[in-house]
Request: fold
Amino acid sequence: MQHAITGRGRLLPMTGPPSGDLGTIDGPWIILVTDGVVVEVRPGGLRPGDPESVTDVGAALCTPGLVDPHTHLVFGGDRSDEAAARARGERYTGGGILRTVAATEATPDDVLRDGLRGRLGRAMATGTTTIEVKSGYGLTAAAEIRLLRLIGEAAAPLPLRVARTYLGAHAVPPGMTPASQAQAVIDALPQVASLADHIDVFCEPDLFDVSLARSILLAGRAHGLGLRIHADQLRRSGALSLGVELGARSVDHLEQATADDARLLADSGTVATVLPGPALLLRGGLPPVRALFDAGATVALGSDANAGTFGEPSMPLAIGLGVMIGCSVEEAWWAATRGAAASLGLADTVGCLGPGMAADIVAWDVEHEGAAAMRPGAIRPVRAWFAGRPRSD
Reply:
């Protein structure tokens, strides 16, 4: 089926570099879509031979659908009391990840599935068309398989793309050591790999150090999974360098990374995925976004929506917070679309609007991309298309 989307406002196709004009077209413009795929983007209005089916978004800002490359959205329980305690400056003694693991185990499948579907719905309502969801609140093989299965079931009736990540190496459960948990994660791979797209490790010196992380990631790669790492968040661990060494798709967090690390990433194919929300809330340092962009590294923005530190899967908020920690407005939008797509290994499918790309398109309730910085988290879609299928907010 052929369809045309037209507008007289600004179109940001994300075909230019992050520090450039993003390929911006001031209206009028037209996007031609066939069978869910963009076939042409051009300035000007309709021409003879264009589709009869047309949607006009008026003066709305129009962009590719947003891509959230880092979330922990399937969980039970509530840890907002811990957030309040941290804000008072108290030590992190509320139970953390293991508290959520226990609550998740005690929550029935239908409740977990409905909770996740609601969070995915909120992500779609804020302009996200592709999202990554991790397991990690199970830790045993059976519990992790359960969570990966529930992610697939929750996503099945929804139009957005959902990439699943196996994060058995998220914490060390009682009775286990980091080494024994790492081996358990590896041993589960024959059962888990068919349910996931990626494998991730929370690499920290007292948790899963570089040696253990390397073993887990190599085993994951042998089972066909893309590699991701929670890297240099709390302490400088060597995880970023490990990610580059192994050709990981993404190293995430990077609050303790340096300008030298930025140059190392720039010379690699590994994406730096920055998560400004939890970085600001945890107050343990900020990722060096200015050094990353200036070095020429590929940068992604993500929400890191999770059970304990930052609860909302809002990419417009991540864009606004990204500007607060050093991105330009153009860089933040690029990192939330094209950079984030690269983080998930989907750069040939989503993240920009050019011929052959998925017709994931959002028209916003603003006329200029700068509104995302002036109204962090408050801009909303007025129209959205998922692979060419319209969905109104």
Notes: The first strand starts at residue 2 and ends at 7. DSSP finds 14 helices and 18 strands in the chain. The chain has a mean pLDDT of 96. The domain at 2-65+351-391 is CATH 2.30.40.10 (Urease, subunit C; domain 1).
